[in-house]
Sequence to fold (131 residues):
Amino acid sequence: MTNEKPIVIEDGAIHEFFELSYASYLVLPRSVLQSMPLQWQSKFVKMLAQMEERFGDVPPEGTYYVQLKDEHGHFLHDPLRYYERGRRRIEPILCPLCGRPTVDGNSHSSCVTREQYLADKQAEQAEGNNG
Ligand SMILES: [Zn+2]
Fold:
């Protein structure tokens, strides 16, 4: 047992990481974790061990079941559902609109929305110039 004071509620990097979302869990695909550099994986696993030392098994009973849904709650095909016994390696794929990494190679929905907004704005201005 350490004397380190636990960080509570609206303080700390984890709280900031979740930003304004109401998410209660962090779910990460094993294939993506196994595709990170080995040194990163080693640090990550050490930190998981520290968490287990402090809290034991989480959850203490049962298992979580994860399914991918879209923003409307409709189930989606999850290309990362099966980890292929650790043989799958994923290369970061960049969003064609913003250049930031995206797991599935599709544009971020926020980028599509912004792109559409800019296109609409441009069309509006073109109409204004012609009329
Ligand atoms: Zn993007």
User: Anything to note?
Assistant: The two ends are 74 Å apart (CA to CA).
